[in-house]
Amino acid sequence: MAYERVLLGMGNPLLDISAVVDDEFLTKYFLYSRYAILAEDKHLPMYEEMASKSNVEYIAGGATQNSIKVAQWMLQVPDATSYIGSIGKDKFGEEMKKNSKLAGVNVQYYEDDKAPTGTCAVCVVGGERSLVANLSAANCYKSEHLKQPENWALVEKAKYFYIAGFFLTVSPESIQLVAEHAAANNKVFMMNLSAPFICEFFKDVQEKALPYMDYVFGNETEARTFSRVHGWETDNVEEIAIKISQLPKASGAHKRITVITQGADPVVVAQDGKVKLYPVILLPKEKLVDTNGAGDAFVGGFLSQLVQEKPMEDCVRAGCYAANVVIQRSGCTYPEKPDFH
Q1: For labeling, which of 4, 209, 287, 330 is most exposed (least CB within 10 Å)?
Q2: What residues are labeled active site?
Q3: Where exactly are the structural domains of the chain?
Q4: Pick from 293, 261, 295: nearest CA to 280
Q5: Coil, helix or strand for 23?
Q6: Rounded to 5 degrees, what angle do the CA atoms 154, 6, 253 make?
Q7: CB neighbours of residue 144 within 10 Å
Q8: pTM for this predicted structure
């Protein structure tokens, strides 16, 4: 099978501003550990404050972009992945382009000349992270860019599509275009629940895309929020995973598979009305650096095997391997070569 541009991701490219902070900092900005939210006015001063910290790091991120970069790293095949999103015409945007090129991802950014490149404050306390995204230019993506011949050619070329749920807040029409193309051409379309606020406040656009999803990824918190929002009255992650997999589908070519991670607990995979649990690689607490990008890395590892048509067991194992590598480093970063067999 030819792997050239086999996987296309679309999402919100953000430059992560990552720093170790304390509980006082979280309280000051009304934050909780392991939260992912969009920035409000009350959060804006935190970016300057974090930038002034001696331990601050800048890493090209954004959920989908992280997953695509990890998939590219795991595949070690030139030009296997592509990514589309919106950045600003500024220093951070240039940094993003340079970073993506180094990662081997074929990026087609829309460059907005009014808004600055989006940033994400990654506040790390005791290895756990709290994320506050200030979308800025990432929020300016329009489906017109996707429809341009050179960009739509990436859609035509790809056989697998992955989009984090965060992109539902930006361009649901772009998601719909790709989803319908995938269904019409027997391709694989995948999304992530991404955050509790997506399931709660963007329920309508999420529901519109759901019938097209061949794979739904998420973590246990997002799954439980999804259940509550849909009035399912169950907190049992395995039950929720089955229910999500059995929601109506737009195309019968692929049965939906739900993949839910649960931190150190086993990965839940639901398909055909059954659940299978896969153990994760346990990490001693002292080796944990930060959990930022763990979920994204899991998806990236999973996708690297899926596009090679490997069995589910290999996909999950690769996901667990990639997540394990990333949580031992700062941000969603990895060594030069994977050590996955």
Answers
A1: 287
A2: 296
A3: 7-13+61-117+136-327
A4: 261
A5: helix
A6: 100
A7: 11
A8: 0.92
